[in-house]
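Input record (one chain):
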Amino acid sequence: MREFIAIITGDEILNCSVKDENGFWLCSEMNSLGFFTKEIVYIRDNLENISSHIKRALSMNIDVIIITGGLGPTYDDKTLRAVSIALGKDLKLNEEALKMVKMRYDSLYNKGIIKDKELNKNREKMAILPDGSIPIRNNTGAAPGVMLKIGNTLIFALPGVPSEMKSMFNEEIKKILIDEFGQWTYLEKNIFLDHRDESTITETLEKISRDHGIYVKSRSGILNGERKMVITLALRSEDQNVANERMNMALNELLEYLKNKNINYLIQ
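The corresponding structure, as predicted from the sequence alone:
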């Protein structure tokens, strides 16, 4: 199973000044690529905390670590410094990243958005990356993203602004992940039941999960304003045909059980 961890940084998130969008979105996108989300971690803009969480994730042999936030020009943008500490790498001016930053400020200047396009030390800060980093172009913001490979783990540091992070992921990161790990399939079915007692169906769900090697989870949910029981079936596989077969077998077994028990259901 391919696993990923998201590390979401930002005092503003933990102070509840800004609502996080990145964690849920990344989880959904990585699911669609066949990755299992091991953890989503929210931490403050603190060098020790960020670096220690990166070290911990690496010790778990995680396939992909994605860090968001803290790449900008201000003093509290500390993510890359924390990455350098965690990996024992020096911070160096990356010429490719510097070109990206310069092109961005030239563009903003030419559009009349800013009055000064010169690269001062704060703007140059966004091009100072851990040694060995590969910068990733940011087409909607100023700070480049960063990619590093440590052993078998890919580490990405992406901007915290959701529009920038999503654009960078869709335009750059997704292709890198597919090239590195291959194209996997993620399938999910949600079945809404007119049934409220989870205890009466638990053993059947355990059997379906065990027999077909598929994730099965029951929970409370809402459909058309009415409270229902929701059963989720989900699986990941590098073979789409195998995934479809396993999903269909598990789903058919569940639906047969529900029919025998006269439990009404709706599949979404």
